[in-house]
Write a structure and sequence with these properties.
By secondary structure, the protein is an alpha/beta fold. Helices cover 35% and strands 20% of the residues. The strands form four sheets. It has an eight-stranded mixed sheet, sandwiched between helices. A five-stranded mixed sheet has the order 2-1-3-8-6. A three-stranded antiparallel sheet has the order 15-17-16.
């Protein structure tokens, strides 16, 4: 495993002192990491007073607490603005020990940057049981990688094993772990029975080197995908965000060449594509934290959704080149756009996007 994360302290909410999650994390905690108990973990998640980089400091502070709100939510792309795929999000953690320069969490979690993990994560299963009963004929894909990397610190938490076991026994539900790590050891120890998909965000070496701090190198992510594929998992990949720097088309096409050399395209469940998009607030936060990052200084325009994006012709041109490379590798390999408008989808694919339930069912393996 190439990804290694460091912690300054572990905070445990008093009500979760005896939880299974707290016991597992304490047992595997590196020597020298202080363990503290607090009445309310949400207080410990607030920005550290006096920290030069409160968001970065929060990543080094793990907090085990109880989640007070439902775990399942709709994907943020699930609106009439975007050609979406009917994805559901399971919020099992908040923030991430990695530190990508473009990450939207820099703005979204500015007021509570502590790295939170929810001890009552098993409550998710009851929510999913109810969803399954209410939509028995629908194939549903549920991901855990929206507000936190799905597998970061899994060697400590072991949450993946419980999730894979639950989904292995549920027809109609597909679990997606989304990650930039190669932390897959727990996955290799359990049979997913075809009900868990592991997806990796992939970026060219140039983006990884300058922007994706403390993540596994792209070659390590692809190698990890090969291992879980042979262990019975489905695999998929996200080219997101695609950054429109000079030479980007060459680099992203080479990345796809490397991927298809390592993995038969016919064994890849899907590939998503999405351009770099930032609200003005996120762009300001990212540039303050990473003032020398060359990937954060490109020219963008304000899109109708309130996000700064590369010029539409430039963005569409990149998508078209990548779509053609994917089609050349395997005409049946599903490819779709994430958080793009139906009009952009029509320009790239030559047709209107499928209905969310139809695309969702295809991506969920139905």
């Amino acid at each position: 495993m190439t990804t290694r994360f460091e912690l300054d302290a572990l905070y445990i909410e008093e009500g979760e002192r005896s939880s299974a999650l707290a016991a597992r994390v304490i047992a595997g905690l590196p020597a020298g990491v202080a363990v503290r108990y607090v009445a309310d973990g949400r207080v410990a998640a607030r920005p550290a007073a006096g920290a030069a980089d409160p968001f970065g400091a929060g990543k080094r502070r793990m907090i085990i607490l109880r989640r007070r709100s439902p775990f399942v939510m709709a994907c943020p792309a699930g609106s009439s603005e975007f050609a979406c795929c009917g994805y559901l999000i399971a919020a099992l953690a908040s923030n991430c020990p990695m530190d990508c320069g473009y990450c939207f969490l820099q703005e979204y979690l500015a007021d509570n940057p502590g790295f939170q993990i929810y001890a009552n994560y098993a409550d998710l299963f009851g929510e999913l049981d109810r969803i399954g009963r209410n939509a028995p004929a629908r194939a549903i894909r549920v991901g855990t990688g929206e507000l936190a990397d799905s597998l970061a610190f899994d060697r400590l938490t072991g949450i993946s094993r419980d999730l894979v076991d639950y989904f292995a026994r549920r027809e109609g539900l597909l679990l997606e772990f989304k990650t930039k790590t190669d932390e897959i050891e727990n996955l290799l120890a359990i049979d997913p029975r075809g009900r868990t998909l592991v997806s990796w965000t992939l970026s060219p070496a140039r983006v990884f080197t300058t922007t994706e701090h403390r993540t596994a190198p792209p070659v390590a992510r692809i190698a990890a995908a090969c291992r879980v594929l042979e262990a019975g998992y489905k695999v998929a990949f996200h080219l997101d965000p695609i950054i429109a720097y000079e030479g980007a088309a060459r680099d992203y096409l080479a990345l796809l060449d490397d991927l298809f050399d390592a993995i038969d395209p016919g064994r890849i469940a899907f590939i998503s594509m999405g351009g770099l998009r930032m609200t003005p607030g996120l762009r300001g936060a990212a540039r303050r934290r990473f003032p020398r990052d060359p990937m954060l200084v490109g020219e963008e325009v304000m899109a109708p959704d309130g996000r700064m994006r590369a010029f539409t012709p430039l963005r569409v041109g990149l998508y078209e080149k990548l779509r053609e490379r994917i089609k050349l590798a395997d005409a049946n390999l599903a490819a779709y756009l994430c958080m793009e408008s139906p009009s952009v989808h029509r320009r790239v694919f030559g047709a209107a996007p499928p209905a969310p339930h139809a695309l969702g069912a295809r991506l969920a393996g139905s």
